[in-house]
Design a protein that fits this description.
- The chain is elongated.
- The protein has two helices and eleven strands.
- The protein is α+β, with helices and mostly antiparallel strands.
- It has an eight-stranded antiparallel beta barrel.
- The chain is about 25% helix and about 45% strand.
Amino acid sequence: MKKILQLLPVVALMLMASACDSHSKLAKDINGTWASTPERLTDNIGNSSSIIRILEFDKLPEKNGGTLIMSGLISVNSAVPQGDAVDSPISYTASGVATISGEWTVQDDDEITIYLDPSTMKIDVDPEGVVLDYNVLTASSAPDTTAIKPALASMVKKAISTGVETKFFNAKKIDDIKIKDNIMSCEIDDYDITLHRQNVD
């Protein structure tokens, strides 16, 4: 019994060293930029919207963690609401970019925790990136895009804001992380997601 008790501190040190090694390995493996496949994005006006999530992990020296920039490339496909400026149905596509920054720390051998700073949240929808589909109109009946595009960009930004914020702020941890051949499978907000490493030489 005495020998067993003497061995316990050694075993504890070995377990701690093993845990530190696994934490360090995950921190090194996850460092870099990762992009998801398109995910459905819920907005408040029923648009057909999707988001590609981009995670940029920057590991700090001698730390099992670092800084994080989470971005979202957003695409929207919907119809222009009819009104004074539009009296015939017009479909449109629009794109936007959302970004937020924060920090990450390895919590376990397959889990990291995330803190995102709400004050860094930005969502941009470029009016020049709004594309109108006139296939249902004659050239003479096409509305003035100078007025419509900025209004649509503003409407899209407002519509997607809640969905983007939900995607971002529900991401408090990434767990069940498995990385192989520059592909990372994991769970974010209990949602299975696959990410691909970017800028691979």
